[in-house]
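Risk mitigation, structural track. In case the binding assays with P-hydroxybenzoic acid fail to produce interpretable data, a predicted complex structure has been prepared as a fallback.
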Amino acid sequence: MRSQVVIIGSGPAGLLLGQLLTNAGIDNVILERSSKEHVLSRVRAGVLEEGTVAMLEEAGAGRRMRREGLPHDGFDVAFDGKHHRIDLFGLTGGKRVMVYGQTELTHDLMDAREAAGTETVYEAADVAPHDFDGDQPYVTYRKEGVTHRIDCDFIAGCDGYHGISRRSVPERAISLFERTYPFGWLGILVDVPPVSDELIYCNHRRGFALCSMRSTTRSRYYVQCLLDDRTEDWPDERFWDEIRRRLPEDVAQRMKTGKSFEKSIAPLRSFVAEPMRFGRLFLAGDAAHIVPPTGAKGLNLACGDVRYLFDGLQEYYTGKSAAGIDAYSAKALSRVWKAERFSWWMTTTLHLFPETGAFGRRIQEAELDYLVHSRAASMALAENYVGLPF
Ligand code: FAS
Ligand code: PHB
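Fallback model:
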């Protein structure tokens, strides 16, 4: 079999790239190791930057997001018992974010791909990229006991942090940068109205908390937890007690509680692989970088990579120029590192770091005080949160 582009991974990066390529008449196939149901069962991001929203519409997968998504013009930062609104719209000259779950976005992209009749091979085992340092790369995979080979022009490694693509690059050719955090996020989904119309990011001496949502009837809440915590350590009753202890009194009092139907713990990490291109293999999304979810950047960064990679591939196939794909890695990394910095800053400013002691706590308090009382500081937060330009 032959295709122009083989995409490894059917997450947001792979699906969005595949849809843009298909719409541009560039044939592609996605190889996904899990089942479609498993991909859709994952609960992850919730906030889309304007650039991501525009790309979904460009891909022809934005209708339901426009109908069901929640445009947000600001969010609250809470600390010391009070909450302060960050006016994204006012501080960025009219930009906002869209609250719309990654699960829904993934579903919409899968539906668009199926409508276009473009192939995704689910439950593809032992996917492996080959000869990407030459000009005749190919990918092999096993399905129902049969090994298949797809010859192609390019391979897009959109297979996430634990994928095979990055791990297929020789160690001497890649540099890894990483910072781990001494805590995780415990998240729940619950069908009760959100406690606030907008998100609330809360710094508290007991730990970080985040009040988010998926709709006006479905809340998404998080608390900072210990790295070795397990979901069974957190029955709903403990979760509700803890998040209300961390929120300002007026917020805690009006919080609706209920029985969670999803509960998971995610570790936090900052990670970047450089470069993001190896001959005919390109890394995009979590395969190349990870950010702590505090800044709501992970999914949006994946879409930013796809912006550059799709533009470069389209230029290669139509303009017969390799300038775009040659510039991909440097361009993507420049935006990735700015988002890494922002996500690291949001995480260090909002979470409890016992090891930084009393001095570290006072620095956090000064950072938060400056943030909400300085227009310049709030503008810096706002322009990063709505998304830096592509
Ligand atoms: P993904 O990981 O989404 O997709 C990769 C795909 O490749 C998967 O479907 C996987 O099954 C497949 N794959 C892996 N190995 C393969 C192989 N060998 N062969 C074939 N297929 C393979 N971001 C936010 O902005 N906010 C959040 O709150 C947030 N929460 C998160 C919670 C968790 C637990 C995780 C892991 C991530 C979270 N993120 C969050 C980040 C997340 O949204 C990612 O940035 C986003 O999924 C990136 O999309 P992809 O790059 O497509 O990678
Ligand atoms: C979410 O709704 O899942 C969410 C929102 C904002 C974040 C992280 C997660 O920063």
